[in-house]
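Researcher: Re-running this chain for the archive, since the previous output was lost when a drive failed. Same request as before.
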Amino acid sequence: MPHISTDHGTITVERMLDAPVSRVYAAYADPKERETWGAPSDTAVFTYDEADFRVGGRDLARCGPKDDPRFRVEARYVDIVPERRVVATETVREVERLLATSITTFELRPAGARTHVKVTVQVTSFVGPDMIKHTKAGHTGSLDNMARYVERMKQAG
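Model: Regenerated structure tokens:
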């Protein structure tokens, strides 16, 4: 019988963004904007093939290195409270190989003219504990990019 791997992790990433909640939420809710900041690094890409940002809606995206976005992400929105919270389930595959599934909660809290963002990911990896580390690195990089993006938009606006 083949070895079956099941690893669990809870990841929390928090940032204080120098932009109002309305701007941060707009950057999250609009898939075109999310493509701009969603990749975790300059060498990676995050591209939507389908986007339906509403409770019950589904997003399909490809991500990975710019020359090989081989990872497929399917997200389904469970709960959306505008400018406060988004909860989604996500399944990640590499081609047809199931890598992980998770529930992700994206929370926004106003802090004057700034926004406190908290992302909590409860992930189950089917390919070992390194997937938990990769999930954390991906969300950390994406949130860092989001911060730079919304702060740049604020300066431009």
